[in-house]
Amino acid sequence: GEIGLIKLLSLEKHKDGVRLEIVSGRRAVSYMDTVFDQNRQVSFLLSAPLKETYPAVQRLNEANAKLKKQMNETLQKILKERLEQVEPASVLCDILPYADRLSMRTYCNDLQAKTNGGTAAVFAREDDKCSYLIISKDRDLRQITKPLNEALNGRGGGNREMIQGSVSADDETILRTIYSLLGNESDS
After folding, report:
1. 114 — phi, psi (to 5°)?
2. What pTM, to 2 d.p., does this model score?
């Protein structure tokens, strides 16, 4: 019998030889049909000719990266303005409508600097969840991890000076819980 179409899917170095992934016959035809159909759908979504989907995706990725950079720059300006409005206290907590992990960390460090060696907590909304990062110089945060996560339906952990994770709770419950666990100093 004839094998028909043979399609090489991947080739990788393995020990002293190579590992091939291939399909042949009807499976190869079916595979190529699937790839063609997906490329046609991508072509339609990108308004690009079938043979130009890769450059179109590259342009889309570049535009996405540019937008992310602009969004991050705007977020940094907003966080700087928020920080300027915060009055120093030994415990500070802020809940942000959005922030990526790096921005949360930077903002939490800056907020903690306003505590004169105290504790700073930053929460950032992500759909129905809220990521958190808490930094402290004056208390062992491991002691509040379990009660915090239980009270706020959360997950997370960390070390003596920093804990992080996510919770499912409204802003009022978050603030009430943080200040009951850390001390009711101020909220921003």
Report:
1. -85, 0
2. 0.73
